[in-house]
Specification:
The chain has about 120 residues and is of the alpha+beta class. Helix content is about 35%, strand content about 20%. The protein has a single domain, classed as Roll (CBS-domain), CATH 3.10.580.
Length: about 120
């Protein structure tokens, strides 16, 4: 049975909570991703996530200036996280139950990667 570590994406793009929504969009476009993991401020902090949907719904739809809106205002935090040793079947169930399209893979407070529904569909077969 495949584990989360076997199919996760290990090249994770991160951003600081103090970045602007405009910077997020630029970084997403440059890296070809739809979500960024928000860095922790310190070891006791939790990771966050900011997605294209967050920018569209919380910035553009509300006609807010993307150069003024900070990531910490629109991100999701704390996150549902996945252990790298979790079987993919259980990851899929967790994501379905929580309505997630992606989740960070964390081991001992360290970000290991991100697993997405696309990873499960394309790599777990």
């Amino acid at each position: 049975m495949a584990k989360a570590r076997d199919i996760m994406t290990t090249e994770v793009v991160t951003v600081k909570a103090s970045a602007t929504a405009a910077e997020v969009v630029t970084l997403m476009k440059e890296k070809g991703v739809r979500a960024l993991i928000v860095d922790r401020r310190d070891d006791g902090d939790a990771y966050g996530i900011v997605t294209q949907r967050d920018v569209v719904y919380s910035v553009m739809a509300e006609r807010r200036d993307p150069t003024e809106v900070k990531v910490h205002e629109i991100m999701t935090k704390p996150l549902v996280v996945v252990n790298p040793d979790l079987d993919v079947v259980y990851v899929a169930r967790l994501m379905a139950q929580k309505g997630l399209s992606r989740a960070p893979v964390i081991y001992g407070q360290k970000l290991q990667g991100v697993i997405s529904v696309t990873d499960i569909i394309t790599k777990a077969m």
